[in-house]
Specification:
Length: about 725
């Protein structure tokens, strides 16, 4: 919170314009939660979807590593859905997936009662009632002598925002107190005919309506109708049926942790995640309706500046385990796991245009990548690792076999090391290039990773999957923002560096802006493109005024900002903006992929590299296909199409076609990407002189016997 407070104070003191800086803030809206909540509103209209559902108590053991749940916790184990189940915010978790506590509710919005100070209780994770009065497998009562322990891993901040010392994480135990409290008024929807008096055909404003006893309602419950519109027979009406009381749970704090930065936590504990063992000792807890719950305190930045109000104070919890016959040293699990998400096979990008890859496949692919593999057991396991690559809607596939290697317990040696046989598991090579399909401009591949115990008959396995895409854009990011990035003051510029291996057409820029309070960042900016100047943004080569922060419907859908005039780019180029105001545009910021060396900002007539580790959700769109809609029609050519060579060309280009005989004359044209003719000749020659033309994308059109054939030509001078 101190970061946001500092910014707010600068604005309040009126000196922000004198201080140029880049700022990182949390999310105002969690899109994954929002989309899921909206789907439930449609499918379960009228329900309170976060309300506890009445179910029978569950039995021991209770275990959840959050690897199977998506977005919300497993309803068979948990009574509420405030926390966010995800793979993005935990850093180096015991396995992929954790429960994240923050300042955002289950609908994806910052809590309505969120305040700057004092801290407020935000997310809760409450277990279903658990039978601790008896154990069916033993056919006897449980007691403190059964050595019952609750264990869990926890981590402050992760890849999100650090909680301040007063923004604590708390664990409580609870049992019913014996008292009940009014929880809600149950209601029933029925035809108005069923509650009308004899002879009555209309219910009017201020009429008294009584709950029908024959439907099981409390006949003493009534309501006053305040609807000004008359209700007639045949219409439905909803009226209260009975008061619902729920038992009061008496809670006791058993453990808590003070907030801190992840770097401070790692320095203090020597761990990314720390495991906690909490014994269940007091006989009061051995109850048929025992529960435990976690919750966090949060404190958001002051909302005087709405574009800075956001989600803060993240905590991550993983591997929650409650069972008997345990001890304080029972901290291992018979599991082999992957930590972190599966990596891209590309050298610098998460995704890149297929055409750019095909031009330079060797340099586009990294030589090796890193996998984080852990043995959470107390004994060494002989493990086997492999990955499999398969083309989506294609025939290309291959398999890498990393062989076998002994893996020590995690508490002894940590993740698998890139040494000896471990190198084939933890740092495997990209064994083969992706195939080159000349007939298509896009491709995607599924990369599946497997780790297993090869020495045990009762095999334990874990897997990861990654989709490697080649589309019409460059992406350093994985498509999910953990934070938001902004600049101050007005006039500040942002430039994001990209590189093309051969000249291409910049059509536009996709951007994902985080939503802020009341869409306060729905403001205007100047879209800009620069060339390179020794590794920094150089000459401004394009700008487009009055672009507005906007959003697409759907989950993490980027907003395309198309150029009015497509631009030929070559080598290194930069896309970004200049802002008109001090407000935070709040571009999405991916903290799982560090590309800060490609991010530049300018607040005082000089360019600086970003000081924040991450990747912006900004993707330049390249390729010729989008340009040609209403300017020049390009259609797939049949076999025997026009062939150009060499391509790319620098001085002369030759061409051939089956219909071109030795002395056949034809109309030959060279066109730019807008369809304008730069050169036109009627000749029987098979060669064009393109020397001196600027580098970029062109088209050669040949008309033979009233039939037109077109082929793309890249000029690289």
């Amino acid at each position: 919170m101190s970061k946001k407070i500092y910014i707010a104070l600068l604005f309040l003191l009126g000196i922000s314009c004198a201080v140029g800086q880049e700022v990182i803030v949390g999310l105002q809206v969690n899109e994954a939660l929002r989309v899921h909540a909206e789907k439930e509103i449609v499918t379960k209209r009228g329900c309170d979807c976060n309300r506890n559902v009445e179910v029978a108590s569950i039995d021991l053991p209770v275990f959840d590593d959050f690897s199977l749940s998506k977005v919300y916790p497993d309803t068979l184990l948990w009574a509420d859905r405030d926390v966010f189940i995800n793979k993005d915010f935990p850093f180096m978790p015991p396995n992929v997936g954790a429960a994240t506590f923050d300042a955002i509710d289950y609908t994806g919005s910052v809590y309505s009662d969120a305040v700057w100070f004092p801290p407020f209780i935000a997310d809760r994770l409450t277990s279903r009632p658990i039978r601790l009065d008896s154990l069916l497998s033993l056919e006897r009562a449980l007691s403190p002598a059964d050595s019952l322990y609750l264990s869990f891993y926890y981590q402050p901040q992760g890849t999100g925002d650090e909680p301040e010392p007063w923004d604590t994480l708390v664990l409580e135990f609870g049992v019913p107190s014996g008292d009940s409290v009014f929880a809600r008024m149950d209601s029933v929807t029925l035809l108005a005919d069923l509650i009308m008096m004899p002879g009555q055909d209309t219910i009017r404003m201020f009429d008294t309506l009584w709950a029908p006893a024959d439907l099981g309602c409390n006949p003493s419950v009534f309501m006053i109708n305040f609807d000004p519109e008359p209700i007639v027979r045949g219409q439905e009406i909803t009226i209260p049926c009975d008061s619902v009381y729920e038992p009061v749970t008496s809670w006791q704090k058993m453990w808590f942790a003070e907030g801190m930065k992840l770097s401070e936590f790692r320095e203090a504990t020597g761990r990314d995640f720390l495991q906690v063992m909490v014994p269940v000792l007091d006989s009061v807890w051995f109850n048929p309706d025992f529960q435990f719950r976690f919750y966090n305190y949060a404190s958001i930045s002051d909302d005087i500046i709405p574009t800075w109000k956001s989600n803060v104070d993240q905590w991550n919890i993983d591997f929650i385990y409650l069972n008997y016959n345990r001890s304080a040293g029972d901290t291992t699990y018979r599991k082999l796991t992957f930590s972190q998400r599966a990596p891209s096979f590309l050298n610098d990008y998460q995704s890149m245009p297929y055409r750019q890859y095909k031009n330079d496949p060797t340099n586009s692919i990294r030589q090796q990548f890193q996998m984080y593999i852990a043995n959470l057991d107390k004994v060494e396991h002989n493990t086997a690792y492999e990955y499999r690559v398969s083309q989506v809607a294609g025939n290309y596939a291959y398999r890498y076999n990393g062989g076998n290697c002994n893996l020590s317990p995690f508490y002894v040696a940590g993740f698998q090391q890139c040494e000896g046989c471990g190198a084939a598991h933890a740092c495997p090579p990209v064994q083969a290039l992706f195939n080159i399909d000349l007939s298509t401009d896009t491709a995607s591949y599924l990369i599946k990773h497997y780790i297993s115990d090869s020495s045990d008959q009762n095999t334990i396995v874990d897997s990861l999957i990654y989709r490697q895409g080649f589309y019409n854009y460059f992406a350093y990011d994985d498509g999910t923002p953990e934070l938001g990035y902004g600049l101050v003051p007005a006039g500040a510029e942002l430039a994001y560096q990209f590189n093309v291996s051969l000249p291409d057409t910049l059509q536009g820029v996709q951007m994902y802006f985080n939503k802020t309070l009341n869409n306060a960042n729905e403001i205007y900016f100047v879209l800009k493109v620069w060339n390179d100047n020794n590794g920094k943004p150089g000459e401004l080569i394009y700008q487009q005024e009055n672009q507005k922060v906007a959003w697409q419907e759907g989950l993490y859908h980027f907003m395309p900002y198309m150029l009015d005039e497509p631009l030929i780019v070559s080598g290194t180029f930069y896309v970004g903006w200049e802002q008109y105001t001090d407000d935070n545009l709040n571009i999405g910021f991916d903290t799982n992929n560090d590309k800060h060396t490609h991010i530049f900002y300018n607040t005082n007539d000089d360019w600086y590299n970003s000081s924040f580790a991450g990747a912006l959700l900004i993707r330049p769109i390249v390729g010729s296909d989008l340009v040609l809609g209403n300017r020049f029609s390009e259609t797939p050519q049949p076999s025997g199409s026009l062939l150009l060579f060499p391509n790319p060309a620098s001085s002369h280009v030759r061409f051939t076609h089956p219909d071109l005989q030795a002395d056949t004359y034809a109309d030959i044209s060279l066109l730019n990407i807008y369809g304008s003719e730069l050169l036109k000749v009627y000749s029987n020659q098979r060669e064009l002189n393109v020397a001196g033309l600027p580098s970029g994308l062109y088209f050669v059109r040949v008309v033979i016997n009233h039939r037109s054939y077109t082929a793309k030509l890249l000029i690289n001078n």
